[in-house]
């Protein structure tokens, strides 16, 4: 079963994607201004060849028709299955032929002139020259934007793959440490409290099954992520006894929301290591999710000693700061997956402790 977020196959520039209506409208408005400028320059170069109003009508009709043809083609999934060279040739043919024929016909209708594709005399070449000139400039613009968009998508994908590889490496380093401690605790429980040992074995099976599933998929659901956190905290509560209290709060409406697997685990482990374990007496961890106007916000709070003073300047991008490699890795994953829309912020909790707040846009699993 696929539990990923909605797929983004092509890595298009959003401005060039007709499914982004705001971007399409902006592109058409910019195209109209560009075609008007092209008509003005052409009229200045050959003022006796054509009246400016008529030239402007032909230029706008042909240019905007070409733009619409390109946008419609780029919105078609079969178009993106073609080879890049074939896509370029197809765009050129449709833009030149379709843009000229359809745009020319529209201009003739608007001007109320007899229908014909080619005018008589030298002035009849003007629409062809305009169409060819504008088509060449327009196609060059689209090709440049598509190349830049593809390169940006490739860099983003490489960053995401590196981040996921780092996740698996980090997970392979953290899981044996937690597993050995749990097995050592189990050894004593088998002798002293068999019922507690049986419960811990069940919790450990749940945790390991969820961890294995998380390592095989790029996305999971918040419901599955919280189930894994519950198994982890159950194990830690069995080990620590009454020293650990914990609470998970996940609204039912958010259970199906998509999230990168193991994104919250380092935050809970950090709260356990730096918040609860050094504390004398009872420690508490709370993980709460809520929906905001911008997406989803998840907070991980502990009742520990709080944030240590940070007299040094902030670390350079890509380098771990005082929060350690686990939190830095969460930041890198958020950046790779969500860009500027994903963030991790550490705040003081009240009355004591630390509050890690993760924010990212909501995405539901694809059907």
From TrEMBL:
- Signal peptide range in chain numbering: none
InterPro entries in the record: Bact_2-comp_sensor_kinase, HATPase_C_sf, HATPase_dom, His_kinase_dom, Sig_transdc_His_kin_internal
What Gene3D superfamilies does its record include? Histidine kinase-like ATPase, C-terminal domain
Write out the GO MF terms. protein histidine kinase activity
Q: Which residues form the Histidine kinase domain?
A: 263-364
Q: Region entry Disordered: which residue ranges? A: 303-326
Q: EC number(s) per UniProt?
A: 2.7.13.3
Sequence ranges of Pro residues compositional bias: 308-320
Where does the sequence pass through the membrane?
24-43, 55-73, 85-112, 124-143
Pfam families associated with the record: HATPase_c (PF02518), His_kinase (PF06580)
* Keyword terms: Kinase, Membrane, Transferase, Transmembrane, Transmembrane helix
PROSITE patterns membership: HIS_KIN (PS50109)
Show the PANTHER family listed in the entry. Answer: SENSOR HISTIDINE KINASE YPDA, SIGNAL TRANSDUCTION HISTIDINE KINASE INTERNAL REGION DOMAIN-CONTAINING PROTEIN
In Swiss-Prot or TrEMBL terms, this protein is called Sensor histidine kinase
Q: Tell me the organism.
A: Caenimonas terrae
């Amino acid at each position: 079963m696929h539990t990923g977020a909605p797929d983004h196959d092509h890595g298009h520039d959003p401005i060039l994607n007709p499914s982004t209506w705001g971007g399409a409208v902006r592109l058409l408005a910019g195209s109209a201004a560009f075609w008007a400028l092209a008509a003005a320059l052409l009229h200045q170069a050959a003022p006796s060849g054509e009246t400016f109003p008529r030239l402007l009508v032909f230029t706008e009709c042909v240019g905007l028709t070409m733009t619409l043809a390109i946008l419609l083609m780029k919105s078609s999934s079969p178009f993106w299955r073609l080879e890049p060279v074939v896509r370029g040739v197809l765009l050129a043919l449709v833009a030149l032929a379709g843009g000229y024929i359809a745009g020319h016909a529209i201009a003739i209708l608007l001007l109320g002139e007899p229908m014909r594709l080619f005018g008589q005399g030298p002035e009849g070449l003007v629409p062809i020259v305009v169409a060819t000139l504008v088509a060449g400039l327009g196609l060059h613009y689209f090709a440049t934007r598509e190349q830049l968009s593809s390169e940006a998508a490739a860099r983003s994908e490489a960053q995401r793959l590196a981040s996921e590889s780092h996740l698996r490496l980090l997970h392979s380093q953290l899981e044996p440490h937690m597993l050995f401690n749990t097995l050592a605790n189990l050894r004593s429980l088998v002798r002293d409290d068999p019922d507690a040992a049986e419960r811990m074995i069940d919790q450990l099976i749940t945790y390991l099954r969820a961890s294995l599933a998380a390592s095989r998929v790029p996305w999971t659901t918040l419901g599955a992520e919280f189930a894994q956190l519950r198994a982890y905290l159950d194990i830690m509560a069995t080990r620590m006894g009454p020293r650990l209290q914990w609470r998970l709060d996940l609204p039912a409406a958010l259970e199906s929301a998509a999230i990168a697997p193991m994104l919250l685990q380092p935050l809970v482990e950090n709260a356990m290591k730096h918040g609860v374990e050094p504390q004398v007496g009872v420690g508490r961890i709370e993980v709460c999710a809520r929906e905001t106007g911008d997406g989803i916000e998840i907070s991980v709070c502990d009742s520990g000693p709080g944030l240590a003073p940070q007299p040094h300047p902030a670390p350079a991008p890509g380098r771990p700061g005082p929060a350690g490699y686990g939190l830095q890795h969460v930041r890198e994953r958020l950046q790779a997956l969500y860009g500027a829309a994903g963030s991790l912020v550490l705040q003081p909790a009240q009355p004591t402790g630390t509050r890690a707040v993760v924010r990212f846009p909501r995405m539901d699993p694809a059907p």
